[in-house]
Amino acid sequence: MNPDLRRLYQFAQQPSRRIIGLMSGTSLDGLDVALCRLHGHGTTTRLELEHFATVPYHEDVRYRIRQVFAREQVSLEYLTLLNPWLGHLHADMILQCLEQWNIAPPEVDLIASHGQTVYHAPQHQHLRTDFNLNATLQLGDGDHVAVRTGIITLSDFRQKHIAAGGEGAPLAAYGDYLLLSSPKEERLLLNLGGIANFTYLPRAGQDASTAFSTDTGPGNTLLDATVRKHRPNLAYDEDGRLASAGQIHEGLLAELLGHPFFAATLPKTTGPELFGPAYLQQAQERSNTTGLGLEDTLATLTELSAMGVARAATQVFGPKPALSVYASGGGAHNPALRAALQRHLPACRFDTTETLGILPDAKEAILFALLANEAVAGQPVSIGAGRQRVPAVSMGKVSFPR
């Protein structure tokens, strides 16, 4: 038997597995590296986060990714070269973390690599009749990660979701359901990343088909892009200070909210391909606000992100939903965004996932460690319903080091 295959077989039978989960989101701030110990599988899964770090991207890395990020036309040669280059980079970042944590690579069972999303194209968004299917593309080749680190690697998780009838995003429902369901309360797990999304969790023990995830619109992507455009020395609006100093422009907000995405039925998925600088520019032109100051623009975009979440929540749960909301992602650190959310959802109780034992910044990396654990040791479980259901499939392609 192939020795790597034998190792994988042994890992699957162990009572626990040590898995590194990786996540690089649309904010392009860096690579999240979460070393997890996962006991069991399925609804009995117990997770320990042993170490976590975000390894920041240098500006050169962000520049390279932006050459292909959410662009309809790119150099095919450049895209081809970037895929292994990112895999090599992520492998070196993993090895750097392991050295800092005094852990040898052979002490890790698996790597679960999400990769870097560069284009997300659900059919309802691209509307191409010659390609009547959903698609998504993540770079950072898993074989390069496996060979460079010497650790069996699972990658390309979203493709199986699409192949089985899903849209490839968001996948949070799976990990949220297995790790964070509660018999005491209904929960909304709100991820405020580049794109905002939430998972609704019924009380534990109820029908899993009632759980679902949906994107709600822009989270931080427009905020960060606007800050970088006007203040190149800043990566984002720290603590929402600039937005807090501005005033919401109702005309611009109305144009932004006029996009058909906000009225579309749930669940739905989107990306920066839709909510990018062109979307903002066009709304500013229609509302005669191209000269609007940075602070007022950021205040308006913060309101847009909050209203996207609130509209989606009220669309499902009625005009005054009273749910326990647990936030994660970069936006969870933004007081201006949190205040806007509380204002629009006054009956909801807001906290972060840290209250539930999951570091907000580590949550997405943890999710992919959990998906790898299920692929190796679990049984496929279908969660949710409709277009965004998580099909009963194992996600992740296996790359052996040898």
| Derived structural class | alpha/beta
Number of domains: 2
Look at the structure and give the mean pLDDT. 92
Q: What's the architecture of the largest domain in CATH terms?
A: 2-Layer Sandwich
**How many E-type strands?**
12
Number of helices: 14
Q: Report the C-alpha radius of gyration, rounded.
A: 20 Å
Largest sheet: 7 strands, mixed
- State the low-pLDDT regions, or none: none
- Which strand-content bin applies to the residues? 15-25%
CATH topology of the largest domain: Nucleotidyltransferase, domain 5
Give the SSE order as H and E letters.
HEEEHHEHEHEHHEEEHHHHHEHEHE
Query: What is the CA-CA span between the terminal residues?
Result: 13 Å
Describe this structure in words.
- This protein is α/β, with parallel strands linked by helices.
- It contains 14 helices and twelve strands.
- The chain folds into two domains: 3-170 and 362-399, ATPase, nucleotide binding domain (Nucleotidyltransferase, domain 5, 2-Layer Sandwich), CATH 3.30.420.40; 181-356, Nucleotidyltransferase, domain 5, CATH 3.30.420.40.
- α8 runs antiparallel to α12 (294-317), α10 (250-257) packs across α11 and α10 crosses α12 (294-317).
- The mean pLDDT is 92.
Question: Keyphrases for this structure?
Answer:
single chain, 402 residues, alpha/beta, Nucleotidyltransferase, domain 5, seven-stranded mixed beta sheet, five-stranded mixed beta sheet, 14 helices, globular, kinase activity, Anhydro-N-acetylmuramic acid kinase
Helix-strand layout with pairing:
Layout lengths: L2 H11 L2 E9 L5 E10 L6 E11 L2 H8 L9 H25 L9 E12 L1 H4 L8 E5 L2 H8 L3 E3 L2 H6 L8 H9 L6 E6 L2 E7 L10 E7 L2 H10 L10 H4 L5 H8 L19 H10 L7 H24 L6 E5 L6 H10 L4 E4 L10 H15 L19 E3 L3
Parallel strand pairs: 1-4, 4-6, 7-10, 10-11
Antiparallel strand pairs: 1-2, 2-3, 4-5, 6-12, 7-8, 8-9
Helix pairs in contact: 3-5, 7-14, 8-12, 10-11, 10-12, 12-13
